[in-house]
Amino acid sequence: MKQNNSNRRKLLLLLLIFPALVFAQNTVTGKITTVEGETVPFANVIEKGTSNGVTSNIDGIYSINVRNLPTTLVISSLGYTTVERPVTAAGTLDVQVAESTEALEEVVVTGLASSIKRSNAANAVGTVNAEELIGTTGQSTVDGALYGKVTGVNITSSSGAPGGGFALRLRGVTSINGNNQPLIIVDGIYVNNVEIPSGLRFASGANSGSEENSSNRLADLDPNDIENIEILKGSSAAAIYGQRGSAGVIIITTKRGKRGKTQIRFKQDTGFNKIANRLGNRPWTAASVLETFGQSELDKYNATIAANGELYDFEDIIYGETGLITETSLSATGGSEKTKFYVGGSYRDEEGIIKNTGFDRFSIRGNIEHKISNVFDFTSTTNFIRSNSSRSFTGNENEGGLSYGYVLAFTRPWNNLFPDENGNYPNNPNFAGNPIFVRDQAKNEDQNDRIIQGLTLNTKLYTDDNNRVKFTNSAGVDYLANQTFVYVPETHQAQLGRDDAGFVGQGKNNFTQFNTQSALVWDHDAMDGDLGITSQLGLAYLYQDSNLVNARGTGLAAGQTSVDQSANQVTSQFRSEEKEVGYFAQVEGNYKDQIIATLGYRLDKSTRNGDPNELYGFPKASVAVNFANFDFWNVEDINQLKFRAAYGETGNAAGFGSTFTLLGTSNIGGSVGQSIGGIRGDENILPETAKEFEVGLDVGLFNNRVNLEATYYVKTVNDFTERRALPQSSGFTREITNLGDFQNKGIELAVTADVINNDNLKWNTRVQFYKNTSEVTRLDVPAFALSGAGFGTGLGTIYIEEGQPLTQLVGNIDGELTQVGNTEPDFQMAFSNSFTFFKQFDLSFLAQLKSGGENLNLSKFLTDLGQTTPDLETQAGQDRLGTPANAARFVEPAGYFRLREAAIYYRLPNTIVKNIFGEVVEGVKIGASGRNIFTITDYSSYDPEVSVNGTAGLANGIEVTPFPSSRQFYFHLNVNF
């Protein structure tokens, strides 16, 4: 009996073990590492031609039971090249994979804590890598470097001064009176892109701080530190950012270290600035001087010609400097299995085309990634910047005698304005200021000290063959200390004879931004790995604090430059504190890279809303279908055919203080009191809400050597905020409230092709086309001229009117309000090409075309008044003087064709490098390049890209005597150690 039981147990054990033995015969195990030996966790291992697959664990180890032998395993992971390995028998198969720059560039952001392969994205997300950003020519600022590189991004320079000043618009205008600049995120840190007034307007008489020719503070970031930029252009992509995403989001990732030998890179750029387009002077003759100004001016004209042989060319005297540009950059990358680092530093010194103007920036960055254990890892990014600029005096003013363009419009070229041998400057007999005195003696400067610090901690909570759960927490702080200094000596012509002669203004402005984000992310593989699901749930918090103090003094003691040495002193202060909290959730499903769908929702509350505790919801949904990945697809030449659709909503909170009625100080009986008046707040004000629907098609041909991207979008902004007039009986003049809706529609097309790709010649080309049209669809008040976006209907202004474009220019023509132009272009195009010859020579260029759109050229209004416009010697010029000085007279076409960038580089052959430098130097590249090389346009002023009000609002396309744009040419030396 015992023997029978024993036999039965043996038989049962054999029956249980035999299938396992048979099954184990088809088991393949191994470890996936990089070429340098670093483990690759969570890599996909798939039996080719089947849906059978597994994922490597945290240590890069995998185990897969293959269905057939022999077979092939396909190993892939984001950021690495895909590897195929044949398998003939069960056993051990270790695999090495190499890092792939191309693969990294294909990954785009889909959530606050997740990303996706670009080929699976359901939105048109623009990407720019380091080579595209700075690989062609020298770049002063990040936003200036983006010109023409992404569809749907409209960039307008508000000033040609060193240090920039750029207005970015992603898919058109997103607010009439609120924020139109995209949210900037650097390594997870919300970065302040504020434009800080210096108080210059109190000396020049300009209307507002936005007319002071300031730079936006994105100029502080060093483009050399950037690895990649992703641009979420619309609400359908940016919805997960809630109330901060209405104008789009620009996500900047800085460079990281790599395991292995430390690599050092040195870059030296040397170049120069020259004015891009001289207008020239009116070609005066004795007859035209006599006819225009009379005999007394003709006598001065003749005396100058007799003494000098020619007239003074004040345009060349003021704008004709050749500014030297130098930039030195040094970086080091390296690391071990646990720790990787990137350290970079640079110094840029850029002189302007006006004497005593310039911009310099010192930046140092340290990025560290450390793997604490198999559970914890963290990333720290630290950036310190000091930047300084001297922007002098340009732009709009009200006869302060400071702005060069204003003064030159009335200055006659036969008057000697140079100082005498004792250093005394003569007065300008034609206007209230001597431009040479202003250039040499007056100051408009700022200094910025900035620390941007980020820290991210990742915790891997759970991992098995089908699940990966992690908790990520990041925090960032951006602290900016800005100082401004404006000085006009008491000996300036416009100050003479005044009791309060001389002006000095000093600003101390501090900004602190702190943001934190916590997210729980769950990756789940279902249906034998055919369906991947990524879920995330999280909390975001943003705190902003600003304190702007400006102290001004007039009646300066002789030669003094500080406020305490002035007789009349005024101090103004603006303080703000804002808090926002957001809750977000998102689920993303990917079925075999064939169908990818996303659902997400964000709830936000903000102290800028009428009810700071009310939560506003912002949903998103998207789907992408890759037909070329379906089993039935057999067209080998078409390897991607993806249809996509997306919907999303974003918000834009009302401006700070819009919910409250302002209290104005008044002097009652000799003591300071408070009066109620002016602008009344709306305690029920709502955030503006942008709703966008986007559809698109992506096609990849010939193994992705040719790619087409096409997108159509409709973006509706509801409840925009603006000021409306109130009846006098209310006790107020205006109220800020929600007034209407408007809509943007647009098309974006891009074709990229690797036309030739062999050892002797590589040729890559890209063509982009994009257009946007806007319309006011609802307006709860009568049509109105937008405050701060023009100079009234007499000279022309942006005019908000139901059924019309947001960007229309309207003027009073013969007593009738008439649309005289539209600042929005009909369409824009960009055309870029890069060539590599014999692996040694690189040649590249980028050209831009802007078709349509008009500018309001009020610089010509001033030169016509002063009789100095260059064309006034012609019949056409004289005919123009005979027409009414209204908006129609000064509206001009602003289209252009521009060679934006071009460069040629030469790589020294490795044999030459080794012979000269030995093993110390790994590579040397030299080159030459240019920016804004030439422009073809019918626009008659310095540059068709203009904005009198800086980066704010709808002021693009309105010009009043800007700082002229410049051409830049560089010589480059790059050395890798």
TrEMBL record:
InterPro entries on file: Beta-barrel_TonB_sf, CarboxyPept-like_regulatory, Plug_dom, Plug_dom_sf, TonB-dep_OMP_SusC/RagA, TonB-dep_OMP_SusC/RagA_CS, TonB-dep_rcpt-like
Bilayer disposition of the protein: Multi-pass membrane protein
TonB-dependent receptor plug domain mapped to chain residues: 120-249
Keywords: Cell outer membrane, Membrane, Signal, Transmembrane, Transmembrane beta strand, Transport
Extent of the signal sequence: 1-24
Keyword Transport: yes
Keyword presence, Signal: yes
Name of the protein in its database record: SusC/RagA family TonB-linked outer membrane protein
